[in-house]
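A favour, since you know our structure tokens better than I do. Just paste the record in under my message, thanks.
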Amino acid sequence: ALAWHAAGHQATAWIAYLTLGKEKAHKVADVLRKHPDYALWMKDKSSDLEEDLYLFLHAATWPDDIRDKDHPSHKLAHSSWHYINRFFTLDGKTPPTPEKGKHIQEAFELNSKALSGSGSDADKAVALCWVFHLMGDIHQPLHTTALVSTNFPEGDRGGNLFWVQRKKGTTNLHNLWDGFWDKETAVKRASDAPPTERVDHLKLQKIVDGVKAQYPASGFKELGVTDFNAWIDEGYAFATHNAYLDGKLQGNSDKTMAVALPDTYEADSRKLGERQLALGGYRLAGQLTSLLKL
């Protein structure tokens, strides 16, 4: 599953950009300019964004963009890197066997190490995109957790199989959390636009400014927590309590039997989502500072 859709990932990157300041952000962008897809990215660049910021936004969404089989860098995609399914079990169910393969914490460690390794500049730029992206993913609570219950004996894949009824239509829980900012940041044009250009950056800037004002860095004592596994613990706690309402949220594995969400669920969840965008952005700035020795 994608984590925050493009708008959420780009908001996290934008907050990191503002937190670093132009001089440090320029050094990060210099690493990204060595990326194998740099020329491809610049083809889509709109004139309303300065290049360094544009590269931050592109870096954050690139690991999702390359999931498209027609993308020239599709061979660098890793679907299991985006999440970890820590099981939240109800109804006395025995959790299923965990999936094989590398997941978010191994991916973060691997790419963090690559930045100080002996690889090429292009390899380091690719690793840096993964750091950007995974810092967004880990702050979306449903990228850490899967519900196991009578309805979902094999797990609900981070809410991807958990169908709910919104005021306007049916969605799965994961998609709901990923997409809180999609509608108000959408570009009014054809759906075949490049992924980055599906986000209206003027509209996104309003969200970024609002989130930063509502949740300043000074308000987060959690910024002292720099251990990735502790961030997984945080996400799991938010997923179980806020996303699944401690197991009380009603959903269905059958899309045609989706259950209506509680009245304040979307507004409450979006509020937590915006807090997580801010925290993810501040932590990303911290990681970039230490990993690139800024």
